[in-house]
Specification:
This protein has about 190 residues and is mainly α. The protein has four helices and no strands.
Length: about 190
């Protein structure tokens, strides 16, 4: 007696393999997500620490944090002053130009310090949003993969239940047919 309905063993095996493959892909994506997190987190932490230092409002901490920029400003000012010393004639104009270079240096350092402090809050908010978004994205990718694998396994189970029901229905039908034939044979 053959199967009256349902999927062949090879089709069921194929569905099971597909579900297993989806599970493996979801696990690989989870591992890849963790690897990317491990690679990017040190830079994220460094940026967060830097901006927290700036957001503290501590003038000494801000000064230390912006010192690479202020050193560049100081070097540019020193170069400008050396150019003034070498090329400007002696007198009041030369002295004024040297003083203006110092005033300009102070203004630039002030802009860097103030801008760094004020922008640190937006930077921290952006970092927090980015970290939250990446976390949600990674979780969604993993959940989607596992959901697809579970859906495939659920469909396979449902199909197996339907197949068993069809087989039992066929056996019940055969039993009824046998009883009818037996009754007809005995009654004749």
């Amino acid at each position: 007696m053959g199967k009256s309905s349902g999927l062949s063993d090879s089709v069921q095996q194929g569905e099971l393999q597909n579900s297993n493959a989806l599970t493996a892909i979801a696990q690989q994506q989870s591992q890849r997500s963790n690897q990317l997190f491990q690679e990017s987190n040190p830079g994220f932490v460094q940026a967060e620490n830097f901006n927290q230092t700036l957001a503290s409002g501590d003038p000494y901490a801000i000064s230390r944090a912006i010192s690479p920029a202020t050193q560049q400003i100081a070097q540019a000012t020193a170069g400008a002053k050396q150019n003034i010393m070498n090329s400007a004639p002696a007198g009041g104009e030369k002295n004024l130009a040297l003083e203006q270079a110092d005033v300009s240096q102070g203004a630039e350092v002030g802009k860097v310090a103030t801008g760094s402090f004020l922008n640190s809050f937006n930077s921290l908010a952006s970092l927090a949003g980015q970290g939250t978004g990446e976390s949600i994205s990674a979780a969604s990718t993993g959940i989607s993969g596992f959901s697809a694998a579970n859906q495939g396994l659920g469909q396979l189970g449902s199909q197996q239940i339907q197949q068993k029901g069809a087989q039992l229905g066929a056996l019940t039908s055969l039993g009824g047919d046998a009883a009818t034939v037996g009754a007809a044979f005995l009654g004749a």
